[in-house]
Specification:
335 residues; mainly alpha; two-stranded antiparallel sheet; 11 helices; 53% helix; Phosphatidylglycerol--prolipoprotein diacylglyceryl transferase
């Protein structure tokens, strides 16, 4: 049966091909920026603050994502090292992107005089929104898909439109649209984060930690459906633990193929579990030892000036009034 599939190249400018993958990632970054700028205004943070963060953060995220991916695929690039730079063909790892972005963010926030946790909280919805949109780049590139499925499952069970079903036909075989599963999971997560950040009980740092918990839960189960997982040869008990945690999915889905010669533990699943555990522990410990005294809705204090963001003399901020009830002399200087 003839099926119309999408061209990964959106258009050409002379000899330069502009790929949908790049356009989609650019859109994801822009949407994330707009969300952060809008929320930042409530705390007196300027649009320039987040635009500069984007200028530094996006390259850092791309570099981190690519290095992370290539580190586990060295054999595929040793004969053609220039392909390492061909990020428009896909092959970037989201956890590598997060490592790069958070390292950049930590340095940038300290330079500007703000608590890492306070600004990371503002950026959390931007991160999950960017991931929600970015997954559609995998869709166009026909990558990061799941195991084999019947066409009827896509059309009659999931009720997907033709343009998605056709794109899930890889060399005559239909596959799980794992990009869609993760994108929808992130959409729900975005709504939850935006509701959660308006709650008075939320402490500084807990929104970004909630992001890690939510995203990692979804990523753990979606990863088990994929056929292109980065993996390593781990201890049998570790592989059994990962398989056991994923086993409830066996009720409705078969796991994606993982070559035993390549590894028995999916790296993203392991990292997801570690992030969930670490985030829960951090929330508990930070509350118990007083590191999370500030609430999300409290004014954001610049620890270099001692002034709330938006105050006169506080560089890089607007004249907007910071929300919340806390005063400048009662805010934590935690970084």
């Amino acid at each position: 049966m003839f099926t119309l599939q999408l061209n990964s190249i959106a258009f050409s400018l002379g000899p330069i091909d502009v790929h949908w993958y790049g356009i989609i990632l650019g859109t994801a970054a822009l949407v994330g920026l707009l969300l952060a700028v809008q929320e930042g205004k409530r705390f007196g943070l300027s649009a320039d603050f987040f635009m500069d963060l984007l200028l530094f953060g996006v390259p850092s995220a791309i570099i981190g994502a690519r290095l992370y991916y290539v580190a586990f695929k060295l054999d595929e690039y040793k004969d053609d090292p220039l392909q390492i730079f061909a990020v428009w063909n896909g092959g970037i790892a989201i956890y590598g992107a997060l490592i790069g972005a958070f390292l950049c963010g930590y340095i940038y926030f300290r330079m500007k005089g703000y608590s890492f946790w306070r600004i990371a909280d503002i950026c959390a919805p931007s991160l999950i929104a960017g991931q929600m949109i970015g997954r559609w780049g995998n869709f166009v590139n026909q990558e990061a898909y799941g195991g084999d499925v019947e066409e009827s499952f896509l059309r009659n069970t999931l009720h997907l439109p033709d343009w998605i079903v056709n794109q899930m036909n890889i060399n005559g075989v239909f596959h799980h649209p794992t990009f869609l599963y993760e994108s929808l999971w992130n959409l729900v997560g975005l709504v939850l984060l935006m509701v959660l950040r308006r709650q008075s009980f939320l402490r500084a740092g807990e929104l970004v930690l909630s992001y890690f918990i939510w995203y990692s839960i979804g990523r753990f189960f979606v990863e088990g459906l994929r056929t292109d997982s980065l993996a390593f040869e781990g201890a049998n008990w570790l592989a059994s633990l990962m398989n056991g945690l994923w086993s409830p999915m066996n009720i409705v889905f078969e796991p994606g193929y993982l070559d035993a010669a390549y590894g028995n533990v999916r790296i993203s699943q392991l990292i997801s579990v570690l992030l969930i555990v670490a985030a829960v522990i951090l929330i508990i410990v930070r509350r118990r030892n007083g590191m999370a005294k500030d609430r999300y809705l409290d004014p954001i204090i610049n620890y270099k000036t001692g002034l709330p963001a938006g105050s006169a003399g506080n560089s890089g901020s607007t004249s907007a009034q910071a929300p919340g009830t806390g005063s400048a002399d009662t805010q934590s200087k935690e970084q």
